[in-house]
């Protein structure tokens, strides 16, 4: 058990770092698991690799709570109406009065955009989840996606050098932008792509600044990864998986470590991209992909 706890701490650290940097947490977990896999059932390890993300997600909730919590505290009624066209009667007037008293409408609108971004993953991702796990979860696919998206990052940053972004504030994101980002997120269903990498690339391509693309990616991770973790957990239980004290301890430790490391990783990434571009992550992905290919051909992973 002591050895499993040590391995869990390492895996939690890997998750907390690679979930938010656009370098593919799957690729790194494959490498780490090839060196020091948990001494647990295959079904549990498969579930752990997904559900440990909940710890990372809680870091986003903590860091961005004030920006995302849409409800006013008691006594925080808006000084003036949040609506450009104030209605004086009917259902519209009642809703506006309720919203001014209890809601921050800019945050409500942001959540609506996030939900629009989630729709493609629900429509496309859930039906294909089992097929993708069965056919694409292998070292060759992961390596190719690492390299391919590494090249994309370098090319896109070179193309955008000196250009002024169309969207330099989160509030400027349109519903159309949100839907396009959701479609890019679906690309991350292919292992090795990186969810954050796909959505950041999509955001930059449609005119978002690096900071807006990254921050919106963090927000979008909340419903997406909660949903993915819940789906994986339900499948684990449905297929006869159970939790003893040891399994619960391993999962709790992994999530706690992922949470703590994610706090630092998210803050680091946001500080880094205010002064630098994403090309360093592109080169890193190419190097990591090449390493995965070499180890795969040598039958070491």
Automatic annotation (TrEMBL):
<dbReference type="GO" id="GO:0071555">
    <property type="term" value="P:cell wall organization"/>
</dbReference>
<feature type="transmembrane region" description="Helical">
    <location>
        <begin position="282"/>
        <end position="300"/>
    </location>
</feature>
<keyword id="KW-1003">Cell membrane</keyword>
<keyword id="KW-0812">Transmembrane</keyword>
<keyword id="KW-0046">Antibiotic resistance</keyword>
<feature type="transmembrane region" description="Helical">
    <location>
        <begin position="139"/>
        <end position="157"/>
    </location>
</feature>
<feature type="transmembrane region" description="Helical">
    <location>
        <begin position="108"/>
        <end position="127"/>
    </location>
</feature>
<keyword id="KW-0378">Hydrolase</keyword>
<feature type="transmembrane region" description="Helical">
    <location>
        <begin position="178"/>
        <end position="206"/>
    </location>
</feature>
<dbReference type="GO" id="GO:0005886">
    <property type="term" value="C:plasma membrane"/>
</dbReference>
<dbReference type="GO" id="GO:0050380">
    <property type="term" value="F:undecaprenyl-diphosphatase activity"/>
</dbReference>
<feature type="transmembrane region" description="Helical">
    <location>
        <begin position="43"/>
        <end position="65"/>
    </location>
</feature>
<keyword id="KW-1133">Transmembrane helix</keyword>
<dbReference type="GO" id="GO:0046677">
    <property type="term" value="P:response to antibiotic"/>
</dbReference>
<keyword id="KW-0961">Cell wall biogenesis/degradation</keyword>
<comment type="similarity">
    <text>Belongs to the UppP family.</text>
</comment>
<protein>
    <recommendedName>
        <fullName>Undecaprenyl-diphosphatase</fullName>
        <ecNumber>3.6.1.27</ecNumber>
    </recommendedName>
</protein>
<keyword id="KW-0133">Cell shape</keyword>
<feature type="transmembrane region" description="Helical">
    <location>
        <begin position="218"/>
        <end position="237"/>
    </location>
</feature>
<keyword id="KW-0472">Membrane</keyword>
<dbReference type="GO" id="GO:0009252">
    <property type="term" value="P:peptidoglycan biosynthetic process"/>
</dbReference>
<dbReference type="InterPro" id="IPR003824">
    <property type="entry name" value="UppP"/>
</dbReference>
<dbReference type="GO" id="GO:0008360">
    <property type="term" value="P:regulation of cell shape"/>
</dbReference>
<feature type="transmembrane region" description="Helical">
    <location>
        <begin position="249"/>
        <end position="270"/>
    </location>
</feature>
<keyword id="KW-0573">Peptidoglycan synthesis</keyword>
<comment type="function">
    <text>Catalyzes the dephosphorylation of undecaprenyl diphosphate (UPP). Confers resistance to bacitracin.</text>
</comment>
<dbReference type="Pfam" id="PF02673">
    <property type="entry name" value="BacA"/>
</dbReference>
């Amino acid at each position: 058990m002591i050895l499993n706890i040590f391995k869990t701490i390492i895996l939690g650290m890997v998750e907390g770092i690679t979930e938010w940097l656009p370098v593919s947490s799957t690729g790194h977990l494959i490498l780490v698991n090839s060196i020091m896999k948990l001494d647990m059932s295959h079904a549990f390890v498969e579930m752990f690799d997904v559900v440990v993300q909940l710890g990372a997600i809680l870091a986003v909730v903590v860091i961005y709570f004030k920006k995302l919590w849409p409800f006013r505290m008691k006594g925080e009624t808006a000084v003036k109406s949040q609506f450009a066209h104030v209605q004086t009667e009917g259902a519209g007037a009642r809703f506006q009065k309720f919203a001014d008293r209890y809601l921050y409408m800019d945050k409500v609108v942001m959540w609506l955009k996030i939900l629009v971004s989630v729709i493609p993953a629900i429509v496309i991702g859930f039906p294909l989840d089992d097929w993708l796990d069965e056919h694409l979860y292998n070292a060759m696919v992961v390596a190719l996606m690492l390299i391919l998206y590494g090249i994309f990052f370098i090319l896109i940053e070179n193309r955008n050098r000196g250009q002024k972004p169309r969207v330099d504030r989160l509030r400027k994101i349109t519903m159309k932008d949100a839907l396009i980002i959701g479609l890019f997120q679906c690309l991350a269903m292919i292992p090795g792509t990186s969810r954050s990498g796909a959505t950041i690339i999509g955001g930059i391509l449609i005119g978002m600044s690096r900071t807006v693309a990254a921050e919106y990616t963090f927000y979008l991770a909340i419903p997406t990864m909660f949903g993915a973790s819940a789906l994986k957990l339900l499948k684990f239980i449905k297929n006869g998986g159970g939790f003893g004290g040891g399994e619960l301890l391993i999962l709790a430790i992994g999530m706690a470590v992922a949470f703590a490391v994610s706090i630092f990783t998210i803050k680091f990434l946001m500080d880094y991209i205010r002064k630098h571009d994403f090309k360093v992550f592109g080169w890193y992905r190419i190097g990591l992909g090449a390493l995965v290919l070499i180890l795969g051909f040598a039958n070491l992973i």
